[in-house]
Write a structure and sequence with these properties.
Elements (H helix, E strand, L loop, with lengths): L1 H22 L4 H6 L1 H23 L4 H8 L2 H12 L6 H18 L17
Length: about 120
């Protein structure tokens, strides 16, 4: 399991390094200035989060895991706001609220109400 994660991270790193030299003009000074952001991203999103995600999905039903995974972008935005002090505009805040609301609504169990005597459905 962990070997697959290491291969995935290594492959993604190689592909992104090639893209960096094709599409960007990398300067060592800029990389050094962003060292905390790069370390946070590498450690938290690759090592910690991916490992916890794989471990947690073993004990979760597939349908529930899918709904929870759709919250990944919401937690990423909120973590950036809390930890890295990034600014969120109103559009991003509304997007987080909408995604969160839809996931909670999708997980809510809808049970039909008991029919009362003389209700509209009795007439049909």
């Amino acid at each position: 399991m962990y070997t697959d994660v290491m291969y995935t991270v290594f492959t993604a790193g190689i592909i992104m390094a090639v893209c960096m030299f094709i599409f960007e003009a990398p300067a060592l000074k800029n990389v050094f200035e962003a060292r905390y952001t790069i370390l946070y991203t590498g450690i938290m999103s690759c090592a910690v989060a991916y490992t916890l995600q794989i471990a947690g999905q073993k004990y979760t039903e597939p349908s529930v895991a899918t709904l929870i995974m759709s919250l990944e972008s919401v937690f990423a935005a909120l973590s950036g706001w809390l930890i890295l002090h990034e600014k969120m505009n109103i559009r991003e805040i509304i997007g987080c609220i909408l995604v969160f609301t839809v996931v909670i609504t999708a997980q809510a169990e809808c049970t039909p109400r008991k029919q009362r005597k003389g209700s509209f459905s009795d007439l049909m």
